[in-house]
Design goal:
Distance between the termini: 45 Å
Low-confidence stretches: 1-5, 7-17
Number of strands: 0
Strand content: under 5%
Order of helices and strands: HHHHHHHHHHHHHHHHHHHHHHHH
Oligomer: single chain
Mean pLDDT: 91
Number of helices: 24
Shape: globular
Radius of gyration: 23 Å
Length: about 500
């Protein structure tokens, strides 16, 4: 019925109803772009780079008033999260063609708006460009040479080699070579390069979600590509985790489409960006072994063939950089450093309880948390059911468990390893985990910077260390554990396992 009491034919209702959710979705996307534009104007590359000879962060860009800075950033994040939730609610009711146009169109706008943002929450982005220039301009090995030697601003860890894999440095060629002598142009090109992988992740998310739960693909893309945590960390800060996760998603897509030879190759490419994705290899093997008997042989044979190619890719990628065990010096050094993590809190307590020296406490804390994680991971792999849904759920669970338990040097963007997987899975628990982990991942930077200003925290060293850990780790951990308890399934309530 219309407001005047007239009956609208059913076929006309079908044409008219989508306009309301379309308007909500479009308004949410445009308003989000407006907030990102405000953040970019306040913290722009053109304004602050190269700066006074040292890389800076939001604390110095926004000024000395920590209360105003906290209000501005948390207020912006809260608005972005609210707009994202509105988009999640609206996208469920759109016809497929309209949804596809909007859910992919707005991320392109986000890329354009954030391309000139100075990385607000971390300056690893500058290290990336320095890595690339060291290799492609100066012909040095970034895996064994100090990466900040030729960069115009001082960088954290600039006196150390790069901890990333060889494929990452090779992939830096386009922004470095096309950027030429202009650091600013190179940085913007590198942002756009990251944006390309971000869009590729969105496209793979659409394809995988359509296979796992047809009709849910638009929602999955909004959960990933409209997620303010993902947008800020990937497009604002430019973190290369999105490149690593692109190849993980490619491996998942290959498994879902029975292209088992591609699985090890894609996973190896991911590992050659950041080594952490090697943790997912057992999940793919279990998935292949638990296929129906008549299909298992073909899957295992495909994995074997693909593994041979993956080994060749690995040798080829390492060849230009190989300097023996010294190639991994930066990685080994980082493994012994603790920040904002469960091993850090355990390290502190071990020193208090057992009066251990710092090195011994760190080694013991790392060993204990590693054993706990390996135990959890073993349970996840043993309990993994047949099918594609179980594969994705196990991958997400392994990444979440590793991040919350065993990572010693934790940075908030590591939660990208989780929230770039959870949108693939249907059900309220995965939706809640995506939202909770994303919101929590936006909190620790400000707390780390300004916790010394909080009066009740200052007298307690442990709580100063624990505050950013608690607000980041506890919400997603509680959601995951509650979902496991309520559903008694590693897939939570994602429905019956999809066939591969």
């Amino acid at each position: 019925m219309t407001p005047g009491g007239k009956t609208v034919p059913a076929e006309k209702q079908t044409r008219l109803v989508p306009w309301r959710p379309t308007a909500v979705l479009a308004a949410s996307g445009l308003a989000s772009a407006g907030v990102y534009l405000l953040l970019t104007v306040r913290m722009s590359l053109q304004r602050f780079f190269p700066g006074p000879g040292i890389s800076i962060d939001f604390q110095r860009m926004l000024g000395p008033n920590w209360r105003a800075n906290t209000l501005f950033l948390y207020g912006s994040f809260a608005v972005l999260l609210a707009l994202w939730l509105a988009a999640i609610a609206a996208v469920r009711r759109l016809p497929r063609r309209t949804a596809r146009l909007l859910v992919f169109g707005m991320p392109v706008l986000f890329i354009a708006v954030l391309a000139s943002m100075y990385p607000p929450l971390a300056v690893d982005f500058f290290l990336y460009l320095s890595d690339g220039r060291l290799l492609w301009i100066y012909g040095a090995n970034p895996m064994t040479s100090p990466v900040g030697a030729h960069f115009p601003v001082a960088l954290s860890f600039g006196n150390q080699p790069s901890p990333y894999g060889p494929l990452w440095h090779l992939l830096l060629a386009p922004p470095v070579l096309f950027g030429g002598d202009s650091y600013l142009r190179s940085l913007i090109l590198l942002k756009l390069w990251m944006g390309g992988f971000y869009l590729a992740c969105a496209a793979l998310t659409w394809a995988i979600a359509r296979r796992l739960a047809p009709g849910r693909e638009s929602l999955a893309v909004v959960l990933l590509a409209w997620n303010p945590f993902v947008v800020i960390r990937v497009l604002g800060n430019g973190h290369n985790d999105v490149v690593m996760m692109f190849f993980v998603l490619l491996a998942l897509w290959a498994a879902l489409h029975d292209r088992w030879r591609l699985v090890p190759i894609a996973l190896a490419a991911s590992v050659l960006i950041k080594y952490v994705s090697l943790l997912l290899a057992p999940a793919f093997l279990v998935c292949a072994l638990r296929r129906p008997a008549k299909e298992r042989g073909r899957a295992v044979a495909g994995l074997a063939t693909g593994t041979s190619v993956a080994l060749l890719l690995t040798v080829t990628a390492f060849a230009p950089f190989w300097q023996g065990l010294a190639t991994f010096n930066a990685l080994r050094q980082q493994a012994n450093m603790l920040i904002t993590s469960t091993p850090l809190l355990l390290d502190y307590q071990l020193r208090q309880w057992l009066s251990l020296d710092s090195a011994t406490a760190t080694a013991l804390a790392t060993r204990i948390t590693t054993i706990v994680f390996l135990s959890v991971g073993l349970v996840l792999f043993v309990r993994q059911r047949p099918g594609a849904t179980a594969l994705v759920a196990t991958a997400a669970g392994v990444m979440l468990a590793y991040t919350l338990i065993a990572v010693g040097w934790f940075r908030p963007w590591y939660l990208l390893w989780v929230v770039l997987l959870t949108p693939l899975l249907s059900g309220r628990w995965w939706l809640l985990l995506t939202v909770t982990a994303s919101a929590a991942g936006l909190l620790p930077d400000v707390i780390e910077q300004y916790r010394a200003h909080i009066g009740w925290l200052r007298p307690h060293d442990f709580w100063l260390l624990a505050a950013p850990v608690a607000v980041t780790f506890l919400p997603p951990l509680l959601v995951w554990l509650l979902g496991l308890w309520r559903t008694r399934r590693l897939e939570l309530d994602a429905g019956e396992p999809a066939s591969v």
